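Quick one from the shared queue. A colleague (R.T.) flagged dCMP deaminase as missing a structural entry in our internal table.

Convert sequence to structure tokens.
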Amino acid sequence: MDRISWDEYFLRIAYAVSARSNCVRRQIGAVIVNDKIITSTGYNGTPMGIPNCFDGGCKRCNSDGPSGANLDECICIHAEENAIVFAARHGSSTSGATIYTTNKPCLGCLKKSIQAGIRRVVYAEQYAYTKSVEEVYNWLVEESGIEMSNIVRKLIAHMKWIASRKHWFIPPEIGQISLDACPANRAV
């Protein structure tokens, strides 16, 4: 029997975390891991106490503007930022950690990851940057020594398929399982 790697394991969890996102444009999940122990998770969306993005909380995300435009007007916090802030808020060290994220972090999240002492970034999906941003990004990675690992496998495509159907970790050959079948969900 083939076992998935630790990287694939934690990346699957990052995809599950992304299901909590309340952003109407894109769902991103992040997991911070130290010594194979999850210390923090985060997903993108509006800050605590602010109406959710899908409830109109972020005017920029709810506009019909093009992707990447007016980013300074977006009030949503990124998944990586959320995971780093959550770790700090609850006293969990990020020094020497690995962050697993569904998408390649933006330049801002890369800077925050480096500053938080994260030494490795594992991601699945690319993000399109302008040539000048990509040059700065690559220089920052090289200068800081942070390790970037892009994991692209059939597994990830399969997990996205499962996530899009809201049937977590259920292989397609098993089929759809009703939540009503679970004894904990039955009326007493």
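Residues 131-144 form the longest helix (14 residues).
The CA atoms of residues 128 and 134 lie 9 Å apart.
Added to the table.
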